[in-house]
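Hi everyone, sorry if this is the wrong subforum. Our group has a chain we'd like a structural model of before ordering constructs, and none of us has done structure prediction before. Sequence below.
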Amino acid sequence: MQNFVLNLKNEGVTLTAYIPDYSQEMAYLDKRKAILVIPGGGYYMCSDREAEPVAFAFMGKGYAAFILRYSLKENSAFPRPLDDATEAMRIIRENAEKWRIDPDKIAAIGFSAGGHLCAALSTMSDERPNAQILGYPCILEKIGKILAEPIPGVDTEVDEKTPPAFIFASAEDDCVPVANSLKYAESLDANKIPFEMHIFAKGWHGFSIADSTVYGKKEEVEYNEDCAAWFDLCIGWLNKIFN
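Answer:
Right subforum, don't worry. Here is the predicted structure as tokens:
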């Protein structure tokens, strides 16, 4: 496996790559699908729980994985984080042949504030992913009051070039209300963009892959365990999108 870190143009911004080696025993994986992982953290931080555990889960399904640690805090005013995500996507596509990646099968996944950045990348960038996956995403402009800097609402940015979306969230999320996910789905529907959405009844904000990889206590795993279903559902959805 190739594992390396690239420094992007903006100070402190990195793209960490995990690229599985080619094997003749698995020649069907000559051109791998790829996933760009965008952790959450309110634009104050990039959550480790939504970084490597997510990347490794997708790698286990045959993906090359990339983690974007984007501009934060006083550097997070838009469009700077979007510039970071666009640069990351462009790097992956420009190196697709060298890294044995299918340039038409690159998804991006973002959580919470990272979900906002993922949705912005999918609607406002000139280097969009082929599929977007949004976990309990910040979408609405008014949610910016809990973030490091104000944000543009991305529900109004959906257009005919927006890629298909997979959305998951918890109905009891008291940090990022589920209305954010619902409003984005409404915009996707209005623009005839295919999407799949799963709203779980229980689950804390920031549940990531919702297993012992990200939770240290049994009761934490048990409380969020229903939300863990999003991953297999997402892989099934991606298999249809990237058939």
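For your construct planning: The chain has six helices and eight strands. The chain has a mean pLDDT of 97.
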